[in-house]
Design a protein that fits this description.
Layout: E1 4-8, H1 14-23, E2 27-31, E3 42-45, H2 50-59, H3 62-68, E4 73-76, H4 78-83, E5 93-96, E6 107-113, E7 120-124, E8 129-133, E9 137-142, E10 145-151, E11 154-157, H5 168-184
Parallel strand pairs: 1-2, 1-3, 3-4, 4-11
Antiparallel strand pairs: 5-8, 6-7, 6-9, 9-10, 10-11
């Protein structure tokens, strides 16, 4: 059965995530209302401007719907902020917004991905920095700091994996989606 994955489409770069997911044959759909979460196997909370993002999901009633969503979630950049301890409280990390600098300080870096010898290219645009981690699995670091972590069914990244040709972050996410689907079946 083909996974159905929603991408939160209230603001930010949701189109790039939709395109990446569709490369895998996933039924990828835009999500703007709480009821659209009901038939999904997974959810992506993309990058964008975190303050605007938080305001819009609250306005549309998506904050409580995302908290109640019990399937795998991928959050990138602003998505990491939205899912952290201080916001929706779904991931046991605290992050600092724009910690790597303003837009002009954006950069790309090769990251070491756990269990993989090939470097993972990370695109950091006004990226959050993980300040404190709880009981999470660190899957990639940049200069000794976590930039890709998994907390149970939720995967969050400080960077934008949808802006490169490297599909491994989305593959990690889709593996957890398929695993959750098989458990439910």
């Amino acid at each position: 059965m083909r996974p159905r994955v929603g991408v939160l489409a209230v603001q930010g770069n949701f189109r790039e995530h939709l395109a990446m997911l569709r490369r895998f044959g996933v039924d990828a759909v835009e999500v703007r209302k709480p009821e659209q979460l009901q038939d999904l196997d997974g959810l992506v909370v993309p990058g964008g401007e975190s303050t605007t993002f938080t305001r819009l999901i609250r306005l549309h009633g998506l904050d409580e719907a995302i908290r109640a969503f019990d399937r795998p979630i991928l959050g990138t950049c602003a998505g990491m902020i939205v899912l952290d301890r201080d916001h929706l409280g779904l991931v046991d990390v605290e992050v600092d917004r724009n910690a790597y600098g303003r837009q002009v300080a954006s950069f790309e870096a090769d990251l070491s991905l756990a269990g993989d010898d090939a470097p993972l290219r990370g695109v950091f645009i006004r990226a959050p920095r993980v300040r404190v981690t709880g009981d999470v699995e660190v899957l990639a670091e940049h200069e000794g700091e976590p930039v890709l972590v998994r907390d149970g069914r939720i995967l969050v990244a400080s960077f934008h994996p949808e802006l490169t040709e490297d599909t491994r972050v989305h593959e990690l996410f889709l593996n957890s989606v398929r695993e959750a689907m098989s458990v439910r079946a």
